Amino acid sequence: MAKKKVSRQTFDKEMKRLQIELCTLQDWVVKEGLRIVVVFEGRDAAGKGGTIKRITERVSPRIFRVIALPTPTERQKSQMYMQRYIPLLPAAGEVVLFDRSWYNRAGVERVMGFCTDEEYHRFLRGCPSFEQHMIEDGIILIKYFLDVSQEEQEKRFKARIEDPRKHWKLSPMDVESWARWWDYTVAYEAMISATDSLFAPWYRVQSNDKRAARLNCISHFLSMIPYKKTPFEMGPFPERRPRGPDVPDEVPFKHSVPKLF
Question: What is this structure's pTM?
Answer without folding.
Answer: 0.93
